[in-house]
Amino acid sequence: MSDEQWFPPSDGEEGLFGNIHQRTDELYRIVNRESDDSGVFISPAFILKDVVVFPRMISPIFISDDNSQKAIEAAQGQNKTLVALFLSDQGAEGDYLSDFLPVGIELAVGRMLSMQGGSHSALVQGRRRVEIINILQTEPYVIVEARNVPDEFRSTKRLTALMRTTRSLFESCVELNDSLPEEAHLFSMNINDPGWLADMIATSLSLPNDTRKDLMILTHPGDRLKKLNQILAEELDVLELEGEIQAQVQTEVDRSHREFYLREQMKAIQTELGEGDIWNQEIVELSERIDEKKFPEEVKSQAFRELSRLEQMPPMSPEVGIIRTYLDWLLDLPWEEESEDNLDVLHANEVLEREHYGLKKAKDRIIEYIAIRSLNPKRLRQPILCFVGPPGTGKTSLGKSIANALGRKFVRLSLGGVRDEAEIRGHRRTYIGAMPGRIIQTMRRAETSNPLFMLDEIDKLGADFRGDPSSALLEVLDPEQNNAFSDHYLEVSYDLSKVIFITTANSLSTIPPALLDRMEIIEFSGYIEEEKLEIARRFLIPRQMEENGLSDEQISFQDASLMKIIREYTYEAGVRNFEREIGSVLRKIARLKTEKKTYPKRITPQAIRKYLGPQQYFETEAEMEDEVGVATALAWTENGGEIMPVEVLILDGKGNLQITGQIGEVMQESAQAALSYIKSRAELLEIDSDIFENVDVHLHVPEGGIPKDGPSAGITITTAMISALTERPSFHLVGMTGEITLRGRVLPVGGIKEKVLASHRAGLKKVIIPIRNEKDLEDVPKSVLKEMEIVTVKHMDEVLPVALHPPKSAEKIVKRRSSKKTAPEK
């Protein structure tokens, strides 16, 4: 409530203004100014700055300037009232009429009391509103001409309704606002004058001075009540919101007090039962676990430091859960727990051979590692291998077999689609829900510090605005650094040097060079048909028979049946689809068995056609006869080798080279190099050099829907072009591969094993390869080499006698074409 009084104070009240009751009696004895018939009077005046006093209200004021003091003294000398002026703007000087509000207040001012600093205080009583007509004098004090503004009103239903609404709103405010006494509402109920009611309520409320001035200048009681109703409604909204907020706060406080009380009761009950405090018990248990755990010294210090922080916190603090989770991670991780390696080379070899067929290079590398460890058990550096090959070639399953051979735990982490560095290194504990990275999570799952850790699909790591996870793996896969791997969550180093890391990938092209440099690459080139047959016999058929409930049956597959599945129903480097098709055949047989029908015990090629339906894949067949402008190339794919006919046509034209068949840039460049080589050797090849300006060369590689690229078809393209230009037929049972240079040199290429096997499968009898690829023939089965002739070459001059028929000695086909161009016109 404001400082103004709207009812007489009690007797004997003492304070800043002495005996308040005596002082108010003095106010009542002061006489109002006399006015003429029009209500105009002349009176001293002073500026009231920090307070607005309404009629009938009593309030203290403070006087600090001399002019105001002189005006009050002049009025008191006459025992009469004076006028208080209100500045219209706080920045106004008060020298002109326009600086003041048009309405002021006639005041009775009691005795002034001196205060520190030279200022004075006094009690004043508002008498009536006055209209300021003119300022007659400003020195030594202000004198104004003013007119009385009576509260004239006519009692109407609308005015009565306004008064009731005002009283109701004021009652609600009194109920919600503890600073408003109940007497204020009772006093308002006894006021029947609408103007007085509005002024009394405005005085009771703590309103800004600007709002009080707005009410002061409203001379009609009805207008003041309307304005006051708006103010009361806003005040009521604020008070209701305050009440809601206080209720919520009180509810939370009450709940906290209740929980605290119940918790104290629990402590007392536990003490009586001899159980002690659960929180203290938990702290003690954590301390014992830290003491018993085999930690590095740095980690143990960190654990006790966090435990000390935990002890000092109240049990219900939000930080408690974060620290407790962190300690659990430290305690659950294997820091010095190791599994003992089985270093028996014969046992390891037996396990690897029993569980996998082929893959000699990968098996040899593991046997070498075991042999070195058996000779030097203290060797700390572990191999970091990268198995690269097509899907389904046994990369992941070989990792499991290696773990079994060594007696180590096997854990696997798939990196496909990982794009956030925090997935590897973890999040800092400042984040809500922070956790260690997936490396540390997997190590906790391993429960030993020396598992065999397989990082699957390392070539499918991504990178975006959250960081590059492949960069985070640099530390993991570097034997010089991974003994102190840094995880953002742990904030202590973790030793990964005892872990054998094996990564898998389908392609090396997407692996960053820095990461690739840290790994030993072992290629899984894919299985040849003979290997697939053996794998089916050893692993796939027994496993599928067991899964389909036929393990007790004497069911067998003919080799021709398995070969039919491989060639006509699958097209892959691995054996996943091969196993699915075998399972599909056995499911059909299982159904016949359950239906009590006759089913075959020996699966023939005819049964394969019956159970698997029409042929799904068709191999490219070798040409049926020797032809001009056609040569057979050998290609490598992820699914194995293929033969690929290359066709060349010579057309009348302007010396253009047209290439079709969805050929890549490298292969197009090989074709251009081949044509340039032929032009440079035209005389030796018995080709008229002028013919190149009069013909177009069209090169096409069939199966245009399949993209083709690479340099290995260079000698094949050259052979086909020479065959077309010289009309020398090529031998249809000869295949070839090799890159060509402009000088005709034949450079080595990759995939020789797959290419030779593909040519053997297609029925070719002779294969031309670069001489520097002769070393790759060691990987080709000897049975295949016995049935084929392998020709190694260094230059294109060595290719043509093997690939093409001898040149015609009668006439040159190119001369005949040239004569057609230069025939005389009739």
Question: Can you walk me through this structure?
Answer:
The structure is a single chain. This protein is α/β, with parallel strands linked by helices and 826 residues long. The protein contains 27 helices and 25 strands. The chain is 42% helix and 16% strand. The chain has a seven-stranded mixed β-sheet. The protein has a five-stranded mixed barrel with strand order 1-3-4-6-7. The radius of gyration is 52 Å and the shape is elongated.
**How many angstroms separate the termini?**
127 Å
Strand content: 15-25%
Level of helix content?
40-55%
Q: Largest sheet, if any?
A: 7 strands, mixed
Task: Write out the strand line-up for the largest beta sheet, numbering strands in chain order.
Answer: 19-20-18-17-21-24-25
Low-pLDDT runs: 1-18, 809-826
Class by SSE composition: alpha/beta
Q: How much is the radius of gyration in Å? A: 52 Å
Number of helices, counting only DSSP H or I runs of 4 residues or more: 27
Mean pLDDT: 83
Number of strands: 25
Shape: elongated
Summarize the model shown.
This protein has 826 residues and is of the alpha/beta class. 42% of the residues lie in helices and 16% in strands.
Which features would summarize this protein structure in a list?
826 residues, alpha/beta, seven-stranded mixed sheet, five-stranded mixed barrel, 27 helices, elongated, disordered N terminus, disordered C terminus
